[in-house]
Amino acid sequence: MIIGISGGSASGKTSFTKQLLKKIDSSYIVHMEHDLYYKNKCDIPNKLLTVRNFDHPDSLDTKLFIEHINRLRINKRIEQPIYDFTTDSRKKETKFIYPKPIILIEGVLIFSIPELRELMDIKVYIHTDKDIRLMRRILRDTKDRGRTIDSVLDQYNKTVRPMHEQFVEPSRVYSDIIISGNTQNYVGLDLIVTKINSYISELSKESDVPRKRRA
User: Helices 189-214 and 13-22: crossing angle, nearest 10°?
Assistant: First the structure.
């Protein structure tokens, strides 16, 4: 099972995902973040780099992301890149990720890319009012990424908002479930948890069948 979690920048995708993962047996699920697949500066098109546009699909190595998802699907491990948001570049180190029955994909643009979207069995969109998203982005980028308020607002007006309107918001139509991210009390979370746990239960029953036959 492959589950996609999308929504605008600072919509609450990560908070939703963390709450979801707390309610699921971690031995069954692997979490894949599209953000970790940002390209190195030298590989990003100049037209995007000069205006610091990291919200365009071309700023991400989606080809590698899809390749890694497909490798996990056939039970092969991957070497996941590690991205440093303070330097806007990938680290030399990588992280081994091992396959599990459920893949949880998280990212702003994942529903806007047909090849990626078609891999998903369930698509969840976190919809949050734009003023709340902007406030959260300012707090996150100034506190965790060492940015100034002026630089965050400048980037938001020049690239984040236009890219959201061009790519992210239109992709909402492909979602199976839309959940409000205006608060962190996500109505609909338990519905997703129930669906996943039902799938896990079926997997457990299937794995028990050979044991019973041998007995």
Answer: 40
Radius of gyration over alpha carbons of the chain, in Å?
A: 18
In order of start, what are the domains of the chain with their CATH numbers? 2-189 (3.40.50.300)
If you count them, how many residues does the chain have? 215
The residue among 76, 104, 114, 83 whose CA lies nearest residue 5 is 104
Task: Quote the CA–CA distance of 161 and 146 in Å, as a whole number.
Answer: 21
Angle formed at CA 27 by CA 22 and CA 30, multiple of 5 degrees: 75
Tokens (6 digits) for 87:
């330097």
Render each residue's pLDDT in the chain as its tens digit; 215 residues: 999 999 999 999 999 999 999 999 999 999 999 999 999 877 888 877 777 788 899 999 999 999 999 999 999 999 999 998 878 788 999 999 999 999 999 999 999 999 999 999 999 999 999 999 999 999 998 988 888 999 999 999 999 999 999 999 999 999 999 999 998 888 889 999 999 999 999 988 877 655 444 33
CA distance 145 to 139: 10
What's the pTM?
0.88
